[in-house]
Every structure is written in structure tokens, then in C-alpha cells.
């Protein structure tokens, strides 16, 4: 048996737990965290349950590393859509509209995403929009593909329940999966927190933004971690909008994205404010984001939009991109920014390979 402690219960932590339990019946996994997605209130920073979320890879045209990772995620979510409706993943057309101002800022060059070019054999129904399909006064071009919306709290709870199912027992000495509500100051402390009471063989660091608070994380690594604030509004969907719609602006820190959930809600965002950690939403930002709905998409009913709640999250970015790396018996998996859901499945495949390295080197 290999005793594994995962620190962090965001989408990366929970997906790692599920994957390690599923792929190796000899793994015994404990997740250590202060928060879990079924909680009514969260302590400290816990971003995943309040994310949108959809799949639209952020990888640039030459970033094959992230392209490969995100391809794994797209295919996995298609499996959930087809076979596991209770997972909280719903198929949606994803339409992007590029404003004339954004087009001009890009040098009047169309920027077609890598997944629209058939890389890695990804089949997502990508096509450019005809000019008859959008407002030519406001937009320069657009494209659409077969996307998806993830009801994040449902989905994360689904994965935890799958972990319990794979565990074979809900608790006790025969359980292969467990959760512990603990906070740690050092990753080294996590080795003592496996539910078996024995020292863990491997610790996986999925702490996201909180990695910068770990006392034994390398000082140079702490400096690389930073938040990018996001704000979304959850509204009742009485607008008639059925597709994910993204309006790309000529702004570096704001855009308009709308995600219709099957439960009758709209997720409306948003912003990308680097280094900002305030939790309140100012009136000016709220007015700008919601005002863009009627301005750019007047064909839908926005007059009676009912906002249910406002959500502020802090995307855990890292200078240099994703950190998926082994240091002895510790495996790091953090720094994915706003791509946690779309990149999670590709990330955990790489983590599983690193875990196997530890097992093979030590013959656990």
C-alpha cells in the first residue's frame, strides 16, 4: 500500500485523489484541508467552488505543454456529459465575439485558438461565424465550438462521492479514502496526517494560492505566486440566452463572459485584476460588467435580470506557469491560475506519473 496525503481540496486536489484511487487499488489517499465544497462558508481562500466554469483553453499557439494538458480535460468532460449526467457537466455551444476595438488592438489580425486548428486530434466542432451571425457594427469576427459548463460545487462533490465509492468503506481501517480538516504551516507536517495514523509515503501539494504561506516552500517559489481577482454575478436566467457567450474587449483586465447553467442560472463576469485581493465589489465594476450585457447582446432580455449573489475569487497564478514537479517524496501541483477545471485532468495524469516514480524508486 502507498499512503498519500493531498494538501488542498480545490479541483486539483480532489481530482488527484479520484485519479490515484481509480488507477491504483493499492493507493490510500487522505485529503487535508480547512474547506470542502459542501461547506456553507469557507475559511481563507477557496476558489474552485465559486468558479464559472467552462472549457476554453488559455494555451497560446506555441504552448504545447498546456495544449496537451487541456486536451485531456476536454475529452474527459465529454465522457462525463455522455455517461455521467450527475457530474454537473453540461454541453453548451461556446461563442466568442471579438469587438472591433479588440481586433484593432491585435493589429487587425484574427487570433484563432489552437483547438480550432485540429491540434492533438481534438474534435470540438470549431468554425468561424459568418458575418450574418453577429452585429457587424460592434464585432470584427467571431467563432463557435462545442463547449461545456461545469456546475463547480456539484462537480467537486460528485468527485468526492466517487472517491468514497472507490474507497470500499466510508471510514475505518479498510477505507482507502478519507478527509481531514486541518491546516498546516509546513508541507513536512502533512506526512503525519494520513488517516492510517502512519507516516505518509507521498505528499501532494495542491494548495494553490495558499502555497505562498507554507513555511518550507522554497523562498524563490513563494515570490512567483500571485492572485488574479475575478468577480462574477449569479443571476436567474430569464433572458433567453442558451449558449456560453464571450465578448473579447480591448481591455487587459476585463471581458464579458456569460455561462448558462442547466439549473436555470447565469454566470456573468468578469475581470482579471492581477495582485488585487479585495473581497468587495465596487459599484463602478458592477455597472460596467452588467451594462455590457445589454450593450453587446441586446437581443436578449436584460431589463428584469435578477442577481442572486455576487462572488469574488482569486485565481492562483504562478510566474512561469504550472508547477507539476517532484521534490523527493513531495509532488507539487499548483499555479494553474484560472484554468483549474479545464487543466485538472491533464495535470493529474502527470502527477500520477511522478507518484509512480516515487513508488518505483522506493519500492513502496
TrEMBL record:
Keywords: FAD, Flavoprotein, Oxidoreductase. Signal peptide: none annotated. FAD binds at residues 47-48, 207. Belongs to the DAMOX/DASOX family. The lineage of its organism: Eukaryota, Fungi, Dikarya, Ascomycota, Saccharomycotina. Residues 3-353 form the FAD dependent oxidoreductase domain. The keyword Oxidoreductase applies. Its cofactor is FAD. InterPro entries: DAO, FAD-dep_OxRdtase. One of its GO terms (molecular function) is D-amino-acid oxidase activity. This is FAD dependent oxidoreductase domain-containing protein. GO terms for cellular component: cytoplasm. Pfam families: DAO. D-dopa binds at residue 338. GO terms for biological process: D-amino acid catabolic process. It comes from the Eukaryota.
Amino acid at each position: 500500500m502507498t499512503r498519500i496525503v493531498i494538501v488542498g481540496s480545490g479541483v486539483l486536489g480532489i481530482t488527484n485523489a479520484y485519479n490515484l484511487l481509480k488507477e491504483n487499488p493499492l493507493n490510500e489517499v487522505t485529503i487535508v484541508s480547512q474547506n470542502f465544497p459542501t461547506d456553507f462558508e469557507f475559511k481563507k481562500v477557496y476558489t474552485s467552488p465559486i468558479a464559472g466554469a467552462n472549457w476554453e483553453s488559455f494555451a497560446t499557439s506555441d504552448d504545447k505543454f498546456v495544449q496537451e494538458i487541456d486536451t485531456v480535460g476536454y475529452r474527459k468532460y465529454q465522457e462525463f456529459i455522455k455517461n455521467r449526467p450527475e457530474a454537473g457537466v453540461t454541453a453548451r455551444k461556446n461563442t466568442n465575439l471579438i469587438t472591433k476595438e479588440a481586433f484593432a488592438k491585435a493589429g487587425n489580425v484574427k487570433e484563432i485558438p489552437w483547438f480550432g486548428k485540429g491540434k492533438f486530434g481534438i474534435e470540438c466542432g470549431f468554425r468561424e461565424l459568418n458575418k450574418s451571425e453577429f452585429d457587424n457594427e460592434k464585432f470584427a469576427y467571431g467563432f463557435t465550438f462545442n463547449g461545456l459548463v461545469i456546475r463547480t460545487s456539484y462537480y467537486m462533490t460528485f468527485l468526492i462521492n466517487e472517491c468514497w465509492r472507490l474507497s470500499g468503506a466510508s471510514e475505518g481501517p479498510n477505507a482507502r479514502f478519507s478527509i481531514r480538516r486541518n491546516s498546516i504551516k509546513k508541507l513536512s507536517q502533512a506526512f503525519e496526517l494520513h488517516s492510517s495514523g502512519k507516516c505518509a509515503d507521498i505528499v501532494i501539494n495542491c494548495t494553490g494560492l495558499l502555497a505562498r504561506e507554507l513555511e518550507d516552500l522554497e523562498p524563490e517559489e513563494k515570490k512567483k505566486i500571485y492572485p488574479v481577482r475575478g468577480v462574477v454575478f449569479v443571476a436567474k436566467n430569464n433572458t433567453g440566452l442558451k449558449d456560453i457567450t464571450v465578448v473579447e474587449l480591448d481591455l487587459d483586465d476585463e471581458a464579458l463572459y456569460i455561462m448558462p447553467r442547466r439549473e436555470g442560472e447565469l454566470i456573468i463576469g468578469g475581470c482579471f485584476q492581477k495582485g488585487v485581493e479585495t473581497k468587495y465589489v465596487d459599484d463602478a465594476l458592477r455597472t460596467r460588467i452588467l451594462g455590457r450585457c445589454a450593450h453587446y447582446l441586446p437581443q436578449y432580455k436584460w431589463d428584469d435580470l435578477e442577481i442572486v449573489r455576487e462572488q469574488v475569487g482569486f485565481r492562483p497564478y504562478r510566474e512561469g506557469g504550472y508547477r507539476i514537479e517532484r521534490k523527493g517524496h513531495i509532488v507539487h501541483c499548483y499555479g494553474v491560475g484560472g484554468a483549474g477545471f479545464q487543466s485538472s485532468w491533464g495535470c493529474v495524469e502527470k502527477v500520477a506519473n511522478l507518484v509512480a516514480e516515487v513508488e518505483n524508486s522506493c519500492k513502496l
